[in-house]
Amino acid sequence: MRNVLDIEFYDMNGEPQTLRGLGDATTENWLVVNVASACGLTRHYSGLQDVSTKDGVTVVGFPCNQFAGQEPGTHEEICQFTSDKFGVTFPLMAKVEVNGANQAELFHVLTEVTGADGHEGPIRWNFEKFVIDSNGNITRYAPQTLAEDIL
Q1: Which of 5, 19, 22, 39 is catalytic?
Q2: Rounded to the nearest 5°, which phi and psi values hold at 62?
Q3: pLDDT per residue as tens digits for the range 85-131
Q4: Domains plus CATH for the chain?
Q5: Could you give the count of Cα atoms lying within 13 Å of 24 in the half-sphere of its Cβ?
Q6: Hey, is 35 helix, strand or coil?
Q7: 39 is an active site residue
Q8: Which among 18, 34, 70, 121 counts the fewest CB atoms within 10 Å?
Q9: Is 124 strand, coil or helix?
């Protein structure tokens, strides 16, 4: 089986990316999060931004509009909002589906992992978090878990 760090997806410019490619030589952990701009948990962007500045951590956000239509914006609107409101500098990828028939391959692999809280299966809501280490080991966290409590 291929390492989760090498699964391709698209950035907001339509260019193929991988988690490994978004990291650098010092990256030990990737924090992957499905994000939304109009959610009660949108405030989590602040903690994600703080964690993204830590040595050895690469945060990657995947906008998703599957939960109550809480990410309806265009790529430009999403980037502008997150930059203006939360000072986000970590990479945001192209909008994806994290559940269902059109589920992105990355999230297909991520949702096979049982969460730290025992949850199995589909993404429950916006801001579900996954930590992937440099060996491709995945740890899953509930949407309400703060990024700063993980890394």
Answers
A1: 39
A2: -120, 100
A3: 999 999 999 999 999 999 999 999 999 999 999 999 999 999 999 99
A4: 37-150 (3.40.30.10)
A5: 7
A6: strand
A7: yes
A8: 121
A9: coil
Residue 1 has pLDDT above 70, yes or no: no
Distances in Å between the Cα of 6 and the Cα atoms of 18, 21, 23, 31 are: 5, 8, 11, 15
Hey, what are 74's tokens?
Answer: 């265009």
* Mean pLDDT computed over 57-83: 96
- Helix (H) or strand (E) holding 31, with range, is strand 29-35
- Distances in Å between the Cα of 32 and the Cα atoms of 23, 57 are 12, 11
Which strand (E) or helix (H) includes residue 61? strand 57-63
Contact 8, 17 (CB under 8 A): yes
In angstroms, rounded to a whole number, what is the distance separating the alpha carbons of residues 90 and 7?
Answer: 19
Handedness of CA 146, 60, 70, 110 (dihedral sign): negative
Residue where the block lists tokens 């699964």 = 7
